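User: Can you fold this complex?
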Amino acid sequence: MAKKIALLLVTVLMLFAFAACGGGNGGTTDDPNNPGGGNGGNTDSGFDLSVDDPTSLSGSIKVALPSTGNKRAILQTAVDAYTASRTGVTVEVEWKAEDNFYNSYKIDVSGGLVFPDAAFIDHVYVQNLASLDLVADVTSVLGDTEDEDFPYIDNLVKANELDGKSYGFPFNANTVALFYNKELMGDQKVPTTYAEFKTTAGALLAGNPALENKVFSLSTGVDYRNFGAMMFISWLGRNGGHILSDDLRNSNFLSDEVKTTLEQWKEIIDNKWASPSLSNEGNFYNGDVAMLEMGCWKVYDLLESPENQGKYGVAPLFTLKDGVEAQSILGLYSMCVTKQKDMNKMRIAADFSKFISTHTETQIAFAKEAKSLPVTEAAVQDPYFQSENWKPFTDALYTAAMRPGSAEYPTIESEIANMYMKVVMGTTDIDEAMKKADKEVQETLDELFEG
Amino acid sequence: MVSVRLSKKGKETVRAYALMGIPLLWWCVFFIVPLIMALVFSFSDLRISIDQISRYGLFQYEKVLKDDDFWQAFSNTVVWTLVMMVGNNVFGLLMAVLISKLKHGKKLFIGLLFWPTLVSAVIGSSVTKQVMQTDEYGLLNMLLGAFGVAPVAWLEKESTALFSLMIMPFLFGFSIKMLIYYSAILNIPKQYMEACELETDSGIEKFVHITFPLIRNALVLNLLLSLIDGLKVLGPMQLITDGGPDGATNSCVLYIYKLAFDGGTQMGRAAAAAFILFAIILVVSLIQLLITNRKEETTYE
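Assistant: Here's the predicted assembly.
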């Protein structure tokens, strides 16, 4: 009996192995509907998803959209507006209970059976999905940034580009600015440069010993590894650097800019302006910390809520290097079109994605609901986003630094956090921390591109 | 129409298979099929899409076994497992013995000591974070501060991070083990203890010669449970430190999880790492059972 069971198991195992082997490589270049292989659709030279008359489109698509809070109602209105203008199209919406459904999308797409034709994805994963040939090149539908009537803020489009092609329609963004506690700042100048920051921080601590380690907040501590890595990339951008080369193949962890950034963070810690092991975010909200670099999702709590009226202020991030503009880190969600054999579905999905991401009323309403920013030139001109509280964030959209959309971003993020934590905790010197991070990241990238 | 006449035994066999069919189907669909697929994927270069698998071989196993991060995670997992095995079983046994000696309030103490089990892992991790919080805001640092000790960055230092995660589960993770030991102690026939009492009054001698040998099955079960629980530990590392600083609290399961999910795109390698962990748990469990079975045979002889 045992032999029979073993034989059965081996047979089943072999069947699965052959079945899985048969699935390798996907489509072939001989398939006219699938010229580029993969899930079908693209060729290396790109293809055209644009249509001369979008109102003539007909067919049905399934899209995955966020539904938390009032987002569902806002997006449903946009979907209704779309189907009203494209009478031949039906849109089935899969409402997701989260905003970042990269993992569920990844599983949908990898299963290859049922997947949305378009989905709402965090930009840091878009280039990754593009490199894996899972999302479609939408350059032809997105438009040309050189065109006068190009609807999106140019800088945001770059976040979804890989090898000169665009793989997503920007939909919703967030940036970071400098919040400060008016009472603790007193007469001190809100800094606009790193030199001014040092002067202000020194004066604040000298005048108020209770501000030891609480003048500023660096994103240190175990809870802040992800946000800390994002903030480090922002600081690096302000020093004129990038964490990876433009083609995402090489680590820049050994660059002078990374070293300068680490030296600045160490200087802040050594001067007792921030804690090496604990982010001061919570303490800032308690009124114990003078300055905090934080995202626009905190505007309501800190600047607009009745209980905090007049207590806090907000300003653009201070610059770190002469000639380099202040760069916030960019948070961006985009609409991506799933690559597949059905060109008609891809065309409708691309048309739908562009429609809802450029629909001004939807942009404004969704951004307000998400406590974030719209992505089109028309929508950011709304008085709400040009108000004193929002302008530092809105302006930051034009210069914001993006995280590298590498498939290995989780490793990169983790190595950034490991590197700066070692430096600020004083367990490793700067050069050694940089070397270790560079080695780990470069090895990972080499393996990624070796296939 | 051909009718098949079955014997009584044959009918019973058919009925038995029919009844077993649903659980067997459930088991196959949700366990065997994914297991076999994961095994196949572990030999592939699967990242996200099955369509994009381009080669098969042992290379993922080779990569995992040559990966320093895997061995760091493995070493952390072994340390965690050993500490929890020893700590939870010693505390569990000690509490079970002490409670069994009580004349009144046994149920109350069992209830109180079982209480920590009712706390969810997420809440427990949050409490751990509050206790071990860096600077003067953590409970432990507050207590140390009262004695003039400077605040320690428990969770941010590589040398203290894993130890910090262990404290709470070490102190409060014995409840289930305690219950198993307690029920084993209750099942010891009274005449054995009475006979022993004729020979000695020493509580230690009674424990060593009567109680301990007669609860050995409970000990084996608890050690096996501790071993499996320890080797698959994930919660505290994922919820409190995310494996940091610099991998100091990474565990095997967190290593696997991060490869496949949490932004990771190494499904094939994650599957290979999972099978390596599976093989390790299987071998260690078999060795443990072999040793304990041998001792059992020796004892009965």
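The domain at 68-121+170-300 of chain B is CATH 1.10.3720.10 (MetI-like fold). The radius of gyration of chain B is 25 Å.
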